[in-house]
Amino acid sequence: IDPYLDLEQEIIRLKAQKNAIILAHYYQYSEIQDIADFIGDSLELSKKAAMTSADIIVFCGVKFMAEAAYILNPDKKVLLPDIKAGCSLEESCTAEEFRKFREENPEYIAITYINCSAAVKALSDVIVTSSSAEKIINSIAEDRPILFAPDKHLGNFLIKKTNRPMKLWNGSCIVHENFSERELIKIQASNPTAQIIAHPECPAGLLRYADYVGSTSALLKYVETCNNSKEFIVLTEPGIIHQMQIKRPDSEFHEVPSINQAGCSSCSNCPHMKLNTLEKLYLCMVNESPEIKLPDEITIKARLSLERMLELSK
Ligand code: 13P
Ligand code: SF4
Q: Can the keyword Membrane be found in this entry's annotation (predicted)?
């Protein structure tokens, strides 16, 4: 790419020329959020994708999110700036293992977190996101045993919220699982009036510190409407702090470092979300690639479980 090219301007030009819409998750780099037509949590992004009249959906997020947009709109072109943008939760649950569980336990209803592959969605009864899960679980007949996959931490949080026992898949998010409790305690000690806000993908050991737990959009809403604090400690991917600063310019936000495999403190960026850059966004709009494509058989089955989510979360 010509280093003097104004990427933002070019992206805006390509968007109009190709009748494209740019959807972005809160964990994307700030410059991508700033150029997006819509920013949201997983549920809102799926709803937006299902409704759009654009010809091309450029999805700035991870692959399972772009796949959900495709599944809901298989006749549209769905682009993902970096096709390697995966998710540790998706990796933890292969379609083979999931199918085996379902075959061996036919009495279970499979309620599956949207952070999974299209093949696993196709094998599931209903998909949920962190903002819709509680409502959807509460709508399931009481005598039906539930398998919740793949996030065990979100699953444990939902068991407590709904009082519903569930069998949990053994998956977790590498970002939310690795926040350093020691660093959190230090930040809290230096900022004793700050509110701690957390995503339910965090383990229970971290959630016990939280003043508020919710999906990315719910955390943003909480910050926006919280009258009794101007300081927040954020236990989710720090990309969201960009929108928090826009909504609450009077407030201060603290990210919490992670502990890496070498035992060192490091940033808590999602290595998958952050694969998308402004350069890759521009190139994917020029080349109309990488494009999301899925076999019809998977798309049709996965659409049923995703549409059930859209219906039950109303
Ligand atoms: P939200 O649905 O809350 O945006 O979560 C998506 C995600 O991947 C969190 O790690
Ligand atoms: Fe997956 Fe965690 Fe990244 Fe969200 S933050 S996309 S759950 S790895």
A: no
Residue-level pLDDT, tens digit, the chain, 314 residues: 899 999 999 999 999 999 999 999 999 999 999 999 999 999 899 999 999 999 999 999 999 999 999 999 988 999 999 999 999 999 999 999 999 999 999 999 999 999 999 999 999 999 999 999 999 999 999 999 999 999 999 999 999 999 999 999 999 999 999 999 999 999 999 999 999 999 999 999 999 999 999 999 999 999 999 999 999 999 999 999 999 999 999 999 999 999 877 888 889 999 999 999 999 999 999 999 999 999 999 999 999 999 999 999 98
Residues with CB under 6 A from ligand 1: 41-42, 115, 129-130, 173, 199, 201, 215-216
Distance CA 265, CA 180 (A): 8
What's the gap in Å between 272 CA and the centre of ligand 2?
7
**What's the CATH code of the domain at 55?**
3.40.50.10800
Distance separating alpha carbons of residues 21 and 79, to the nearest angstrom: 10
Residues 163 and 306 placed together within one structural domain of the fold:
yes
Residue 218 within any structural domain of the chain = yes
**10 CA distance to ligand 1 middle (Å):** 29
Cα separations (Å) of 200 from 15, 150, 263, 296?
35, 13, 24, 33
Using the mean position of ligand 1's atoms as its centre, give its distance from the Cα of residue 222 in Å. Answer: 16
